[in-house]
Amino acid sequence: MNRMKDKVCVVTGGAQGIGRGIVETFVAEGAARVYALDMNATDFPELERTCPAARGVVVNVTDAAAIEAFVEKAKAEFGRIDVLVNNAGITRDALIHKMSEADWDAVIAVNLKGPFLMTKYIAPLMMENGSGSIVSISSVVGLDGNIGQSNYAATKGGVVAMTKGWAKEFARKGAKVRANAVSPGYTRTPMIESVPEKVLEPIIARTPLGRLAEIRDIANAVLFLSSDEAEFITGQVLRVDGGLVL
Ligand SMILES: NC(=O)c1ccc[n+]([C@@H]2O[C@H](COP(=O)([O-])OP(=O)(O)OC[C@H]3O[C@@H](n4cnc5c(N)ncnc54)[C@H](O)[C@@H]3O)[C@@H](O)[C@H]2O)c1
Hints:
Elements: E1 8-12, H1 17-28, E2 33-38, H2 44-50, E3 54-58, H3 64-78, E4 83-86, H4 101-129, E5 131-137, H5 140-144, H6 150-169, E6 176-184, H7 197-206, H8 215-226, E7 237-240
Parallel strand pairs: 1-2, 1-4, 2-3, 4-5, 5-6, 6-7
Helix pairs in contact: 1-8, 3-4, 4-6
């Protein structure tokens, strides 16, 4: 119950879905503060009521100035950020010949530039403080590809590649700043609400453990990698997909 005791955490896309589950888990595990960064503030009052250590902050992860301003605010409040979870993500699916440049650019901006910017502004603070954990959410699609998801797959594969580079870059100069990724299988959140059951059924049939992921499955994996229990783990991709991608 105390695996995040006293930690200052940042979770992007923390208003709903997997991000919300991560925020709730960190708070339940004793975090001092969990900043839930999201573009959509509708759920913030309820989040802050049910999770007293959580704070909703409106930040678009593609907006460098907003991220910089947020980091200054967190620095003023706590002087440090211990954990960053790059979770915010979107899909704009289409077969490649039908995919517009706008849909390509939108997904690259949120899913790839977002983690780049968040990490660019937060990792130096972690380096200064000598420790930290960055967990970025990839996807089975980033490891295995998927029809109609060229843009999304490129970003999720990119997150894995960036994570491995960060693991090397941030472990220099005596700093113990770790970077890992979690690769969820299809998870019941608003993101897949529009996916028809007839598409999900064959995925469940191909999954050795025979079901979709639940938000808690992903949040528990992120908790482990964010906590000091994982202090000797960096540059890894933890697959949480019931064995879908082996
Ligand atoms: N649901 C799945 O099946 C699944 C599977 C694998 C990976 N993932 C990944 O997990 C992460 C979370 O997915 P989810 O299913 O919870 O999605 P979701 O759509 O339910 O929630 C995403 C959250 O991110 C926020 N967001 C979107 N764009 C943003 C931006 N530019 N700046 C700040 N916040 C922004 C949204 O407002 C929303 O609150 C994503 O990176 C997604 O790609 C999801």
